Amino acid sequence: MSILAYEDHEALGRVRSVDTATVIVVVDDVERLRKLQVNRLAVLQSSKPGQYLIGIIQKITRNAVDGGNALQEDETQDDEEISEVNMVRIALIGTLIDKLGSKSNVFLRTLETVPEIDACCFSLEEKRLTEFMRVIAAIGSDSQRLSLGQYTLDEKAVAYLNGNKFFQRHAVVVGSTGSGKSWTTARILEQVSGLENSNAIVFDVHGEYAPLTGEGIRHYRIAGPGDLETSQGLQDGIIYLPYWLLSYDAMTSMFVDRSDQNSPNQTMLMSRAVVNAKRKFLVDVGQDQLLENFTIDSPVPFSIDAVINELNAVNTEMVQGVRGDKQGDFHGKLSRLIQRFENKRTDRRLGFLFRGGAQTLEFEWLEKLVITLLAGTADQKDKRGGVKIIDFSEVPSDILPAIVSLVAKLAFSVQQWSEPSQRHPIALFCDEAHLYIPERSDAGATGSVSVEIFERIAKEGRKYGVGLVVISQRPSEVNRTVLSQCNNLVAMRLTNGDDQAVVRRLLPDSLGGFGDLLPVLDTGEALVVGDSSLLPTRVRVTEPKQRPNSGTVEFWERWSTSAPIGGHAEAVANWRRQSM
């Protein structure tokens, strides 16, 4: 039996006009009109039997009319001469079908028909609303369900998303500071980590997700200055990302000063020296078969000393001239490049690039790194830790985009070069995405290199099993191309006008009114729209079992306590050694 079997006398009004996916309904009963609320659901009769059209109420108006014409502001008439027309604007969002094959009460986000003029419109509430929300919650099989919380429309109904579509078609989670953005992310990670063969990487820029623990979660940290002499590497949860993993563009942005008039020559000679050093390494380790096809971007170790020595030789080269020796073509033109190499190599903050030890220069080391970071739970030796949270908090901010995108490119490249039958999908959670996927960046800068990598993942990742979850408190500062590829939106409270405008552009035209809710959402409440959600609606996100370290400091309460806090000496010591 249909859950939406209405009688005609229950109608709140009739359709007056239809425009694509928008319907205007005239309501005669003022009492019923008063009970209606914007953003609640309504049901309209379809021209097809056994089908009902579902819509969201966008606007409710009462207009005084005189003979069918609305009164102007400066016109007045006696009360008995004034009549009213009450109108409700409804945006159609889908169809409920009584019977589809062997299934009953199936909701589809399609509109095969539109209501006819004078078709009845009904309010969806009470018992019928509860039944309808149960239909919405039945997303595919149980194995596909990703639970966020409860629907605001009906707190008895669990808000499920389709886990496949959420990651396949990328997602964006946005919200101002204190809106519950990290809370929501933790809720999603909690469920991902509970799957038997989960596979995800979290780019944790500020160390917020350190409290998240469990068998499905493993924590890593990019090596800081304090790890260079004590850490054993991957077995200690410390990650080194050696310089030879950098792409040509990333190396150029890091070592070549674009403002130098000799930068074209420096770039050319640096690339030649790197290729020569990689070729020598392959010969030395007996991998001659790779010599024919490798390029400067091939992930092959090389000696940075060999590169600097070759650059020094060219920089000081003297050649035979007509009247004796003379300076070579590039004599003295590489001094700044060589100095930048030396400065970067000796900077302890960049120890994760240059101080990884002999093990990171072994031919087999890359395979170990890939298994550690990219293997799912079932492929890990201890069958644990499919969700890898990587702490980037000690990476210098000026090269953060290059390092985060390096890990992202590593994931994408491995998936791209895997046999299709052996691709185990992986999700990349990009926390504080505006820091390394910026809307604007200088050409050749590390931000530009990072944007190119994430744009490619956003456009092509679905084909190779790489999903993006873009998380930011400033969506207006996140690259528009990447955001446009995210077909799922979880929007928490946003108070900045520019940020609200970006989110409104991500909403379907028929749901543009949803954007007006952005500044008034409660903490932990979200608008959920997209391919993974059958019903675009407000959701109250369930609190995760383990909350991230993103809670706002309680100023007034802390100031009101008399107990000493201390910790200043430790803070200074940590600052000096650049390590926590």
Describe the protein's architecture and organization.
This protein is an alpha/beta fold and 580 residues long. It has three domains: 8-137; 162-242 and 356-569, 3-Layer(aba) Sandwich (Rossmann fold); 253-339, no CATH class. 29% of the residues lie in helices and 23% in strands. The protein has 16 helices and 22 strands. The strands form three sheets. A twelve-stranded mixed sheet has the order 10-9-22-21-20-11-19-18-12-17-13-14. Strands 1-2-6-4-3-8 form a six-stranded antiparallel barrel. It is elongated, with a radius of gyration of 30 Å. InterPro entries: HerA-like (IPR008571), HerA_central (IPR002789), P-loop_NTPase (IPR027417). Keywords: ATP-binding, Nucleotide-binding. This is ATP-binding protein. Pfam families: DUF87.
